[in-house]
Structures are given as structure tokens and as C-alpha cells.
Amino acid sequence: MTELEWTEDGARRSATWHSENQSAAPTQVTVISDDITADTAYRLARSGTALLWRGDYHNGRQLLQAMDRRFKRHSEHRGGGQQGATGRNGRRGGKRGTAGNHGATGNHGDLSALGAFETQRRFIAERARLLGTLIVELDGDHQLNLRRAPDVSLACEAAYGPSTGPMCVSLTELNGVLSAYQWQLKGVSIPALGADVHPRYGVFSPIRGEYVDLVAQTPFPGAEPATDASSAPEASAPQSSAPEPSAPQTAFDLGTGTGVLAAVLLRRGVERVVATDINPRAVACAQENLDRLGLASSAEVVEADLFPSGRADLIVCNPPWLPARPTSALEAGIYDPGSDVLHRFIDGLAAYLNPAGEGWLILSDLAEHLGLRTREALLERITAAGLRVHDRHDTTPRHPRASDTTDELHKARGAEVTSLWRLRLAT
């Protein structure tokens, strides 16, 4: 744990520095309060100075919004639009139109979409760095001792665990902790389950339900003959939750997150599911959801980097869809540098499948429309791994950004298709 030190009221103070996105502890800290102007705060933040807020809680949130507005205006004035520009994923000097560590070249896909994507990623990374300079101190009980501050102790304990002493975090991170705690309490409705799942802080929430519906609707191995992989019907939620007679005995759910796909498989009649995740929060979250749904007796949730030991009749993987570097722990559910998880799933699948089993790869083709990956490369990797495509089921996104014409990536998002690839052993 890194200690953050500063001088306040003539005395030397310190607290543990915590950052979910692994930001380094600030080396310069200035204590500020309600009398600071937004322009001064923005100037200090741009110089790399951390701003320890001691004023009114709601005034601090307003200051954060004011700093955000100034950052967006500054980005526009530099000619980068609202997204700004200083280098992809925080890295300066990357060539526009090349894919860097994407695993594809700029000759594939829409170069203008790739440029817009890279600009958005730069904007997000820069914005996070600047707004992350406004920090607050939590005391030894996870309390925020500011005027008009809410009780944040339960939300912080849910996210961070029991307190070990005073801790400093960015106000943006604390806002995320509070928002995530409300989702954890409220839950997210999953029509395919007829129930809610409750995501924890730092665990990707299944708000894009189309991939859940794909798993709920796709026939199990041996249930029906294959259809033309290029014209498979769009998936929809199942009409019945009764166990299916063709359900496999064993299944793996790799990168389980909230455990939603493991729950869908169990509801469909799979006898036993082993769910894995490398994130300890996700392991705890999936276990809680399976307990809540009454499915825990048929499931095992383990902390593992992708595959568990043994073999299965069905192996499901919904890897991060975009080959780019995440800027936060939560983004790890969306962005995968170099398509590492995707490649390891395909390359390792044959060693874990039972002879008549299937691997279900759930993947959006947005990366193809952005020029980050090619369909040819995906198919070549599947073949090289000793696999073949038995079938494919497609659906289209239903999230609001797919129809947002103001989004610079609207063309790519509008063409996006999410697919469930049914992979079998080639021999």
C-alpha cells in the first residue's frame, strides 16, 4: 500500500492511497475547500497537483462537473472534438489509422471509425486522469467527514472490504462506488431468468441482454441439426424455463462475472456448471447470485485464469469484445489488450472439450467494423486450433448507443452484430 502525504494546518498528514485503475499516488497534494474557483482547480489539476477536498460534499461534486466542462472545452479548442487527443489509451505519438496492439492493420475496416475510436479512447483516458486529481479522505470507519456528505461506509465496505485505516481516493472513484452499491442492492432484471442478478462493484453488469438471450435460446449440442452459419436466426429469450432433455451434463462458464450465464445454463437443465473468473470480486458476486437464485448446489465458482481443470460437454466464453487497453477495472470486461482472452480461449478449447462437446464463443463484430480485428483472422485461428464452426446464431444490439446518430461511431455501432459461435473439434 502506498502512503499519500501532505501538509495541512501546519502538520504533516498521511493516509493510504487507493486507486482502482492503478493510478500512481500523487506526489503533490494541495488542500482545497469551497473558496477555490473552478478555473484555479482546473489549472492545478492540469499541472498534476492532487486536490484534497475539505469543503461541502455537494460543492465538491459541482466542482468536479465544472472541471469536466473545462476539460471538454479545452479538448474542443485543441481540434480533437469533444473526445480530445494525446495518444491512444494514454500513449502519445501513436499513428492514426494503425492498430497498435489491436492485432489488425488499418487496411481493414473503416479507417474513419478506427480514428474516431482511438480519439474516444484518448479522451476517456485524459479525462479520467484529470478528474482523478480531485480526491477525498475516508476515515478509519470508511466515513466521509465532509459537510452534507452521505453515509458512504456500507458502499465502501462492499467495494473495498473492511477498513484498515484512513484512505484517500478520487471523488470520481467514490461516485462509482456509490452508484455500484445501488445496483448491487437493486439488481438488474434478466428476462431470460425471470429474475434479477446483483452486480458488485468492479464486476461487469449484464446490461446488454442480447448475449444472455443468445445463450438462453441456442440449441444444446445434439438438439438439432446445424443450420447455415451465415443465416442463423436472431436469438430471443426462451418461452419456458423447464429443463431441456438434451441439456449437457457438464458445462464451464469462463469469465463468469455476475454468474448470469451459469445461471441460464443451470435453469436450462445443465446438471453441473463450473464458473471461473480471475477477479475475486466476480467470484464472490457469482456465488452470491447463484445462492440467491437457488442454483448454488449445482454450481462451483472458482478463481481461475480462464479454464478450470477437467473437461466439459459445453464451454461458454463471453470474452471482452474490443482489443484495446482498459483504463479501469470495470473496463476489463469490455477491452482486452491484443485479444488475449479471445485467443487463449480458442487456442485452449480443444484440450478441455469432451469429444462430442461444443464451445460457445459469444463475440460482437464491432471490432471488425472498427478495423481492430478481421473475420479472416478469427476463422483462421479457429481452424489452426483444431476446431470447426458447427453453427452460428446472430442478434443485433439493443442498447441506446446503437441508434445514437450523434455518436462518432454510429455507423460502426449500427452495423454491429453479436454472434454465438458453436465450435466443435475438427476431427
What does this protein look like?
The protein has helices at residues 38-46, 57-77, 111-131, 153-160, 171-186, 210-217, 260-267, 280-292, 340-348, 366-369, 375-384, 410-415; strands spanning 2-8, 11-17, 29-32, 50-53, 134-138, 167-170, 188-190, 195-197, 250-254, 272-277, 299-303, 312-317, 353-364, 387-395, 418-425. Strand 3, helix 1 (38-46) and strand 4 form a beta-alpha-beta unit. It is 31% helix and 21% strand. The strands form three sheets. A seven-stranded mixed sheet has the order 11-10-9-12-13-15-14, with helices on both faces. Helix 1 (38-46) crosses helix 2, helix 2 (57-77) runs antiparallel to helix 3 and helix 4 (153-160) crosses helix 5. The protein is globular and about 75 Å long. The termini are far apart. 43% of the residues are buried. The protein has two domains: 2-77 and 133-184, no CATH class; 187-425, 3-Layer(aba) Sandwich (Rossmann fold). The chain is of the alpha/beta class and 427 residues long. The longest helix has 21 residues, at 57-77.
Keywords:
single chain; alpha/beta; Rossmann fold; 2 domains; seven-stranded mixed beta sheet
